[in-house]
Design a protein that fits this description.
- The structure is a homodimer.
- Chain A is an alpha/beta fold.
- Chain A has a domain of 173 residues: Acetylglutamate kinase-like (Carbamate kinase, 3-Layer(aba) Sandwich).
- The first copy, chain A, is 33% helix and 25% strand.
- The C terminus of chain A is likely disordered.
- At the A-B interface, helix 1, helix 2, helix 3 and strand 3 of A face helix 1, helix 2, helix 3 and strand 3 of B.
- Chains A, B: Its EC number is 2.7.2.4.
């Protein structure tokens, strides 16, 4: 008998009809002889509706109360799902994150899972019940306050529960059939991957592939939980995320896919004095505003002036705060200007094989040049090449790279509407 | 510094606008130097909407999951209220029934409060915060499951928290100005009472006055919590429920008010063998179906047959089950027929003074006779007379009694739409 953890996003449980369809799938998994733990997001638009109510009563709602409010969304979907399963003749019990033992930090709205103490849900399973757990939420270790996990929190909940209960697999049901070599909405002949290693999936997620969130993949890798990404609207096998690039045979297809990201902005600090410690000062200023930066480039100093430019990218939503923080420290650091550019896109090529194939970078740059895409910044890791270009050229760049590395297929991808949280 | 517990029903927090208005009242109470605990119901139609969703996924939702679902209603209203208060510059924190220490029996959907362990909300108050607590819900003592309290549960939560925190007063905000001598929709010149004793309020509630539920008044009486029933739409003083009829001066106005009830049905079991233990058998049959009965009348036996009729009333919703249970036991008990009548109404006169005024019953019957109301059953307590009549004559009966005992005023009552749970 296997233990299966399944996670259903908001669009999979977006209506009473869809909840009943999901219930059938869950009961079938149980009847096939498995123990089943289900993690569920809030129904379709519930979160947006609750946020709208919050805005009506308060311009800046306290984070603690916002978490209390938003967690009612999963409470609704999980109890309805348990009812639907019960009406099919199987027993199901729903548990909040707190009841399921999801222990988090106390950072409301962006808490991290510290520990999972699943005794209560294990007891329920040993009594034959299907367990339904609210995704996206937990209880803080110190203050016993209700917390939410932030973006991708439900996926992370599922992987964390799978790790804590030693599940055989964590199935993430979503609105696509699996992980693709590129976004099928941009590249119509993108190919679904049957398998992908944790490291490659991490790079894909970090570079903008939305099918799984970074934290969820990090968690799965740390606890070695196989993750099966698949569609809740079909019965097809999806993509299995497992294993390490270190264990791949060298002959394995060398390039995994192309990811893209429109959510970043570029900041350039010009004419910075080129002596040790100045770059550190700049990034300390940004870090003190609790903002994460992504790519960093420092050009060679112009000998005459003894000054250089430092460029970095970060999430667009954080851009204005970063600019303001830097402007405040202009006197202390002594630079000329802060330039802010929101009209950029990032395209990345990911593949375990590129470690041992030095020609990849050349092919990469040639493909973009042929497509007329101008490269603004380049950054690489052992299994990834990323460049920043104009956002208007991003789709062309994705298609050019996908073609150049021959990642396509003849089958057409299936794309559904909507997305979970 | 006083400690005030306030309870707001669903119509008082039915929209973002109303929540903000309630927030202002709460902040004013706090600024006047009081510690404040607020108990809140779900917003307006939330409960009905959730029940509708439940029906869409399951014909008979399990009670445990229904409680999980419905408790999200108060979670939404309480967090929104806390946000609204915070945006006015005061600190507020919301707590679920479970977090606030409301310990109940495990009867889902109709749990009873066993104990309140308010340490967490007392800590919050000692830190200067206004405490918002979800009404209508708690956590079961044995199994730590989320429970709901059933009808009037939020009022009971408020009184229980007031008792546990030794509050100076429990204010129940509702859609009427207080407790009236009769329903102002039937008797336009009904008078608002300034005070009423626990016993009289118990009788009023038991006889159909909807302003406070029976369980809430029982709880207040047991723990001697003064309850102030008032409107959330005005600043007028309402009705104070406190004290015992035993402590009333004999000269005090002898009649309190007229209550009526359309929710009962009448069952008559005919030609029952008139020997000891038969009535007990009949009521045991009803009790085994977990149905509560209200009034009971047994006519004098007809000497010739040695048989008698037994009549009782109970809630209309329980009628069909009671009839079915009795029909099943016909052979064992040996009666002739079970007659079922839904078209009855109950009118009751309540007043501490009637203990020492023997003429009340005569005046009561004369008033009904003059109004042409035929009395079907009479039942009395020390401070109450109730009769069952035709439901079509109920309003006339209420008005006749209200006039006969001169309970009216010249001021017109204010009646608002909507009601909480």
């Amino acid at each position: 008998m296997a233990l299966v953890v399944q996670k259903y996003g908001g669009s999979s449980v977006g209506s009473a009809e869809r909840i009943k369809r999901v219930a059938e799938r869950i009961v079938a998994t149980k009847k096939a002889g498995n123990d089943v733990v289900v993690v569920v997001s809030a129904m379709g638009d519930t979160t947006d509706e609750l946020l709208d109510l919050a805005r009506q009563v308060s311009p800046v709602p306290p984070a603690r109360e916002l978490d209390m409010l938003l967690t009612s969304g999963e409470r609704i979907s999980m109890s309805l799902l348990a009812m639907a399963i019960n009406s099919l003749g199987a027993e199901a019990r729903s548990y909040t994150g707190s009841q399921a033992g999801v222990i988090t930090t106390s950072a409301h709205g962006k808490a991290r899972i510290i520990d999972v103490t699943p005794s209560r849900i294990q007891d329920a399973m040993s009594e034959g019940a299907i367990v339904i757990v609210a995704g996206f939420q937990g209880v803080s270790q110190d203050s016993k306050e209700i917390t939410t996990l932030g973006r991708g929190g439900s996926d992370t909940t599922a992987v964390a529960l799978a790790a804590a209960t030693k599940a055989d697999v964590c199935e993430i049901y979503t609105d696509v059939d699996g992980v693709y070599t590129a976004d099928p909405r941009i590249v119509p002949n993108a190919k679904k991957l049957d398998t992908i290693t944790y490291e490659e999936m991490l790079e894909m997620a970090a570079c903008g592939a939305k099918v799984l969130m970074l934290r969820c993949v990090e968690y799965a890798r740390r606890y070695n939980v196989p993750v099966h990404v698949r569609s809740s609207f079909s019965n097809k096998t999806g993509t299995i995320v497992s294993g390490s690039v270190e264990d791949l045979p060298v002959e394995q297809a060398m390039i995994t896919g192309v990811a893209h990201d429109r959510s970043e902005a570029k900041i350039t600090v010009t004419a910075v004095p080129d002596h040790p410690g100045i770059a550190a000062k700049i990034f300390r200023v940004v870090a003190q505003s609790e903002l994460d930066i992504d790519m960093v480039v420092q050009n060679v100093s112009q000998a005459a002036s003894g000054r250089t430019d430092i460029t970095f990218t970060l999430a667009k939503v954080d851009g204005p705060r970063a600019v303001a923080a830097l402007e405040k420290s202009r006197g202390e650091i002594g630079f000329d200007q802060v330039l802010y550019d929101e009209h950029v896109g990032k395209v990345s090529l990911i593949g375990a094989g590129m470690r041992s194939h030095p020609g990849v970078t050349a092919t990469f740059c040639e493909a973009l040049a042929t497509a007329g895409v101008n490269i603004d910044i380049i950054s690489t890791s052992e299994i990834r090449i990323s460049v920043i270009c104009r956002d208007t050229q991003l789709d062309d760049a994705v298609r050019a790279l996908h073609d150049a590395f021959d990642l396509g297929t003849d089958e057409e991808a299936v794309v559904y509407a909507g997305t979970g949280r």
